[in-house]
Amino acid sequence: MGKATSKSKSKEGSSSKIQSTGTSGIEAAQAKQAGSKFEWHFGRISSLGSFELAGGRAVTIVWDQGSVSSQQGNISEEQWEIFKLSFLGNGRISVLSDEPGDGWMYDYRFLEAVR
Fold this sequence. Notes:
By secondary structure, the protein is of the alpha+beta class. It contains two helices and seven strands, in the order ββαβββαββ. It has two domains: 5-34, no CATH class; 39-113, CATH 2.40.50. It is 21% helix and 39% strand. The longest helix has 12 residues, at 23-34.
């Protein structure tokens, strides 16, 4: 496992740079920046839909931990773009969450399309 480093600048808002020799080092550094209770979860998008009369956009995800989640509505424009990019590629996504129980499956604050 490679060593991850993090550098921050603060002009307008906050940005950071993370450098590592492997993806696991970057994941660990991002989780550390977010807080000690945050964990990465990985899955594959199995379907996307748009149901205007029934609450808007929908996504179904099969999680690597063995569970499946489906959310209809309450999906932001930014989250929808990431879901679409992932779905058009290999379907893989990851979320970084501190939600207890199964709440992490619907926590899209830190959402990434991954290869």
